[in-house]
Amino acid sequence: MCIYTKGVEMHIEDVADDVELMRFVCAGEQLAFRVLMAKYSNRVKTYIFRVLKVKDNERADELTQETFARLFFHAARYADEYEASRTVEHLLFRIATNATYNDLRREARQGKLVKEYAQLQTGPRQPDAALMAAELERQINDALINVPPMLRKTLELHYFEGDSYEEVAHK
Prior knowledge:
The protein has 8 helices and 2 strands, in the order E-E-H-H-H-H-H-H-H-H. By secondary structure, it is mainly alpha-helical. The protein has a two-stranded antiparallel sheet with strand order 1-2. It is elongated, with a radius of gyration of 22 Å. It starts with a strand and ends with a helix. The relative contact order is 0.07.
C-alpha cells in the first residue's frame, strides 16, 4: 500500500513508527489513519471495557469509533499533545476517556430529565408544579431535537407513553 502526500510516494511498510503515521493523518491521509485504526482499535476497545468499565459491547464499539473519528477530524489540534506524549496509544486513551465521560454525562443528564418529568407527572401537585413541568418539558423537547427521529420515537413511546421495550419493538 502507498500513501501519496505532497507529491511524495510512501509505502506503508516503510513507515516504521507512529510519528510518521501521525504526520500523514494530520495531513488528512485516510490510509495512514486506517493503519493506525487497525493497529490500535482493539487496544482502545479493551481500554474502554476494562479501565473505563463500559459493559455494553455496542456502546464500547461506538465509543471506539468516536475516539478514532475525533483523532481523524481533529488531528491537527491533537498534534501538539501528540508531540508532547510521543505515543499514539496514550493520545487515543485520553481521547477515549474524554469521549466515554462525555457519553456518561449526556446519559445522566437525559436520565435526570426523564426522572424529574415522571415525578412531576405523578407526584403531589405544588403551586408551581405546572410551571416546573412546562419548563422541564421544554428542556426535554430541546434535548430530543438532537436525537435521530427513529430513536426519538422509541424514547417517546417508552418513557412518555409507558410502553415496554417489547411493545416499542413491535410498533
